[in-house]
Amino acid sequence: MSAGAAAAAGQPDLADVLARSDVWRGDTLAQAPLPGVPSGFGELDAELPGAGWPRGGLVELLPERRGIGEMALLMPALARISSAELAWVVCVAPPLPPYAPAWAAAGVSLSRLLVTRAAGGDAAWACARALEADGVGALVAWLPAADASTLRRLQLLAEKSRTLIFLFRPAAAVRESSPAPLRIALAAGRTAGRLSLNLLKRRGGARAAPLELDLARPAPLSSAFHVVAGAAPSAAAARSLSPAAAA
Amino acid sequence: MLWLALRLPLLPLEVFPQRPPPSAVIASERIVACDPSATQGGVCPGMRLADAWALLPGLTVCERSGEREQRQLAALACWSGRFTSEVCLQPPAALLLEISGSLRLFGGLAALCAQVESGCAAQGHAAAIAVAPTPLAALWLAAEKPGSRCLSPAALPAALADLSLAVLDLPPAQAARAAGFGVRSLGELLRLPRAGLARRLGAAAVTTLARGLGEVADPRPRFAFPDTFAEHLELPARVHDAESLLFAARRLLQRCCGWLAARAAGVRELRLEMAHERHERQPASALELHFAAPTRDGERIERVLRERLGRLALTAPVIALRLVAERVEALGGRERGLFGDAAGGEGVAMLVERLQARLGSEAVQGLAALPAHRPECASRLVPPGAGSAVPAAGARPCWLLPQAEPLAEVGGRPQRGGPLELLSGPERIESGWWDEGEAGAVGDVRRDYFVALSPRREWLWIFRSAQGWFLHGLFS
Questions:
Q1: Environment class of residue B151 by beta-carbon count within 10 Å: exposed (0-12), middle (13-18) or buried (19+)?
Q2: Which residues form the signal peptide (chain A) (predicted)?
Q3: B448 touches chain A (CB under 8 A)
């Protein structure tokens, strides 16, 4: 049956099916319905459908532990959303109190940042309300105890919104199934200042090797601040910085 | 001018919410108003009480309360502020709304009348509505031909022609005289010469007729909207669970929103008080609602109220509600962005209110970076949207621990899962002598901060003070 006859018979054309955002060929990335948010890392953008963090779907991040640079990976996108797009960034149930000077230095506009403390089921509820509100550009949530049905509900809400959603879950959740269209396991890179991203799931062909990114890391100080009279309390520390002590 | 008359034929009955059917209201031993089930039993207004009881022995009777009716009429005038700020009370049981300026806003006359009717039903009143260019004509039409709409003074005589003389409310002697010379409707009265009418029925009747036709001005005092809103609502039954209070509270909310619209104001704080029965010896419970910005959006207030009521445990059944708005702030109309909506300030304000209603106001906050040297003092939680930033000196971590964690020291090097590698530093922070010893203050600190890397590749912010090494933050 020709394509025209199929369309006349009320069946969708194959080209139309292939143009849908949730259908892709095994060897290429899917077409994203909304343009992605540039992540600030070119190598990563090349590997993501939509050439950036995808909107309108969960982005599930599974870091092996805290402090390896998982926030530095998101900061360029959050800064872009809050400063360039003038939308709000909502943090739900962060594990520690966020430290304002660092967020401001990363470029996030603090006047459009909302920090919500919530426990258990309230955290997922707060995420759902944030997805329903307009004016929220990005949502960063820590849901260590979320079950599959909660994630599925959030994914359905996310498909209706244009919000960028980062969901942090413990590394143990790698083995569980998840409705999120993009899942990335994060691990410390081989050298300091690098982060290794293992793309567990994306709308497109699988990627075997993990991706290594160079993160923006705190630069060495150019000069000492607050010079005061008196003995330094950390002579030992100063010694330990010297190569002789390190050897 | 275009006047909408709102007559409430059953108002004497409707001010008694806790009446079991069949019921009626009496004044001086005669029935004034009765509910449908009493009407089916053959009771009608004007009947003597003894006759009514003979027909329906189970009839519940309340003595008419003029004070309650006046209060209810004023409450309804507050509610009608949503449609126009030009409202006149027409005791005993009617309101007049001047609506010529509201037609476009509400999408035309038909849509406006439909909204008035449905809103009136939601307030629990049966209403008869009519529209006419003069207040008296609107009242007359609402009394005898509810639903009629006459838009121009020229069409008034035709519209009023088939009304009975009863609408003029003539004294009995003059009414008998008018019937005596064979006049039964207003149309027949209007055909007679006015000078003769004035001699026979008195000048007052002719003046009333001229006012109804718009030939003579009919100035009326406007209803003065009160300065503070405090409305009381008796519930028809004792309510045991907080969720079902929402339905009753919605009535009060609509009145409050109408009052706010007429005053072009919004509220940031509302208080809902719930009265319990006296023998329970419980003081009234109260709910305080707070909003991020002044608002008079009924749906938004209702959403916050629903969250609060959902978390409320009632100690005793509730018999009455009271809604109080004390402080109002000026709030103009809505401004639309030139290109669609502006960047969602409104949406986020509503989000903040909903989250705060459920999680508590201290759980939903913004962040501000302050110009302070001591790291604990440089970051503070502030009300949402009030965050601001000052450029920080040096490298600062993304997360700051609430309490610095002591680290072990082996061979002069701090340990956390192995020896830490110090990457940069020291940054000396020595400050805060002024609040040394104060309760809750950080006090005097002398610290050297370093950026360190643990063997597990965590980036840490650690410091060394006289007490040893401490972990203070995570660069993540």
A1: middle
A2: none
A3: yes
